[in-house]
Specification:
Layout (H helix, E strand, L loop, with lengths): L1 H29 L8 H13 L3 H9 L7 H14 L3 H19 L6 H12 L11 H17 L3 H33 L3 H14 L4 H4 L9 H13 L3 H14 L4 H13 L3 H11 L15 E10 L6 E9 L2 E9 L11 E4 L4 E5 L1 E4 L1 H11 L1 H41 L13 E10 L1 E9 L4 E9 L3 E9 L2 E8 L1
Parallel strand pairs: 1-10
Antiparallel strand pairs: 1-7, 2-3, 4-5, 4-8, 6-7, 8-9, 10-11
Helix pairs in contact: 1-6, 1-16, 2-3, 3-4, 4-5, 4-7, 5-7, 7-8, 8-11, 9-16, 11-12, 12-13, 13-14
């Protein structure tokens, strides 16, 4: 009898030890990241609050995570919400902190011990244990939105620094992606048969995203960023630099008539005669809606940036896989969103309801997000294979140490702990549109309407002989506006 008790006690100790390893290690490694709760579930509550103007509550909740492993993501969300609220100082501070964290991460030459710990923890839990570093397109937007903060303070030189960083980030993100892909391919060489089957399965599951992903060449080039940098360079009286970036934007988004007009205009002003003839021949003298105020009176430019809707959110697919030693689950993120064409914003003069025209798309952020996920397939496949192998080894050890109870316990944990990494910057827009027109100098009350959502608003803008930037952000049926006159 004593022998049986000792045997049972030993077995219980082993089972208790297994439970401690399975539950405590991942939670400690995750720090403030919750293995079992998705990022989107937490953020959707805050997004609902934004639509009812509960900005302060959202900012306070996000402030709790500004020193967490995922601080970059939370700070980017805070910076964006601060801009929607028109709290430029708060937004600028948050973006400054996020930028510093991103640059520190990018400049690391050697992986730190904490990074090794996070990578190891991800093998026993899920990818949410890895500190969030930001996708390439998100980091580009981070610099660009910081440039908006400088423009709001009428610090054009500061805005110039940020748009140059945004353009550099486009090149840097592409290089970092190529290096990460090379590392994944190196790890895959020893697991060729496993990876090929996993590639096929994941690509098959992702086939429904091809329509949206196909709208962009890659996730690292953003015509909106190039266009905004062109505007900043014109404000800095650097037309050559503006012309270069407008041309880059045109290569990405050749059908935008406002962009076509800007390239033709600067080609003519800079006496790029051959290029002017080429562009004029290619695009003709296509009229641009909303060009008003022509004549002998003094006019100024109104540049409209319309950031429409919210970027789609990732969901999770989880597939349980039976093995000789128990069940191992594989979970990965996916976008279920369908392609929807950009719905324009209409502008008119409130007095007399005289139409000024409509905005035209220059960036499909939803396509950048989907493309970014598809670009990660090789890296995700390798991590899933390594994690599956690690969890299978734990199951075998649990079975050997605690018998069938250990096997069952480890199988339950493996299924519960496997969660897809659905983290992303959720307050970015679904798409971005622009409009550029001339208006008579003076004060104007403009009426804005977005028919697709039913959103509408009036705003007073001041036009002088330089430029006025009108930024409009739509979230559901609300329009949030900022007007800056230079």
């Amino acid at each position: 009898m004593a022998g049986i008790n000792r045997f049972m006690s030993c077995r219980l100790r082993r089972l208790f030890f297994g439970a401690s390893v399975f539950f405590v290690l991942p939670i400690v490694s995750c720090s403030t990241t919750n293995v079992f709760t998705s990022y989107t579930a937490k953020m959707n509550l805050l997004i609902d609050g934004i639509t009812t103007h509960q900005f302060d509550h959202s900012l306070q909740v996000l402030n709790k995570y500004r020193k967490s492993n995922d601080k970059i993501l939370y700070l980017m969300e805070r910076g964006r919400i601060g801009q929607i609220k028109n709290d430029t100082d708060s937004s600028m501070k948050d973006f400054e902190t996020a930028i510093a964290a991103v640059r520190q991460m990018e400049e690391k030459a050697i992986i730190s011990a904490s990074d090794v710990g996070a990578q190891t923890a991800s093998l026993f839990a899920n990818d949410n244990t890895i500190p969030y570093s930001g996708d390439g397109y998100e980091k580009i937007f981070m610099y660009q939105l910081q440039a908006f903060n400088y423009l709001a303070k009428k610090n054009i030189e500061g805005a110039g620094v940020e748009v140059r960083r945004a353009n550099s980030e486009q090149e840097l993100s592409l290089k970092m992606h190529e290096k990460e892909l090379a590392r994944a391919e190196e790890k895959a060489r020893d697991k060729k048969s496993d990876t090929q089957r996993a590639y096929n399965n994941l690509n098959s599951a992702y086939r429904g995203m091809d329509d949206i992903a196909g709208k962009v060449k890659n996730s690292f080039q953003n015509a909106y960023t190039f266009y905004m940098s062109g505007i900043v360079y014109e404000l800095l009286n650097q037309p050559n630099d503006a012309y270069i970036d407008y041309k880059k934007a045109l290569q990405i988004f050749p059908d935008n008539t406002y962009l076509q007009r800007d390239v033709i205009r600067l080609a003519k002003d800079l006496e790029m005669n051959q290029e002017y003839e080429d562009y004029a021949s290619r695009f003709g003298n296509r009229p641009v809606n909303g060009t008003v105020g022509a004549g002998n009176g003094k006019t100024g430019e109104l540049v409209v940036f319309f950031e429409n809707g919210l970027v789609p959110q990732k969901k999770e697919i989880q597939i349980p896989i039976p093995t000789p030693n128990g069940i191992v689950a594989i979970a990965f993120p996916i976008y279920y969103t369908k392609w929807s064409a950009a719905e324009p914003l209409s502008l008119s003069v409130s007095a007399g309801n005289r139409s000024l025209g409509t905005t035209e798309p220059i960036c499909y952020v939803q396509a950048l997000a989907v493309k970014s996920l598809k670009e990660k397939v090789p890296v995700m496949v390798i991590r899933h294979i390594l994690r599956t192998a690690a969890k299978a080894a734990i199951q075998l050890q649990a079975k050997n140490s605690a018998g069938s109870l250990g096997q069952i316990f480890s199988s339950i944990y493996n299924v519960l702990s496997e969660r897809a990494d659905v983290r992303s910057w959720l307050t970015l827009p679904q798409d971005v549109q622009i409009m550029r027109i001339h208006l008579p100098e003076g004060a104007h009350r403009l009426h804005m309407t977005h028919k697709a959502s039913g959103a509408s608003a009036d705003i007073d803008v001041s036009i002088n002989q330089n430029k006025t930037i009108l930024r409009v952000i739509r979230i559901k049926s609300e329009l949030y506006t900022t007007s800056i006159t230079f």
